[in-house]
Amino acid sequence: MRHPSPDPVGPGQESVWDFPRPPRAEQVDARVTIDFGGERIVDTADVVRVLETSHPPTYYLPMDAFAPGALRPAAGTSFCEFKGAARYFDVVAGDAVAPRAAWTYPDPTPGFEVLDGRVAVYPRPMDRCTVDGEIVQPQPGGFYGGWVTSAVAGPFKGMPGSMGW
């Protein structure tokens, strides 16, 4: 699927095909919760999302919104051509550990300074992530960290055949 056709956009939805490239970071009026290991590890209304063409939004939350001990520094780094060098965390709650399930940009590039001190979480290994009470579905594939809700229309990068998008 080299050039996908955008899915129809319903009332109150945004198409990921209208999101920009390079991506944009923006503060949003939303409440995000994350449950892991049977515990609520985040409940915050201080939310920034990153929007990029073909991707559902990735949500960045303040580090201090996480329960004490929920983020444990993990080995390894990666690099985003837009946001800079990322550092990873294991997510921990009780006996549950999700290795490298969260990341931050400790020195974000110009234009993404709003991400400083914020953490994004892959929704797949969590018990539950919500945006304004709606349970999030993980972005398809295992690489990307977007959060799919009924507020966005795809198709989404990460599904089979989307490598060249």
UniProtKB/TrEMBL annotation:
UniProt region (Disordered), positions on chain: 1-24
Segments forming domain DUF427: 32-123
Protein name: Uncharacterized protein (DUF427 family)
Organism: Microbacterium thalassium
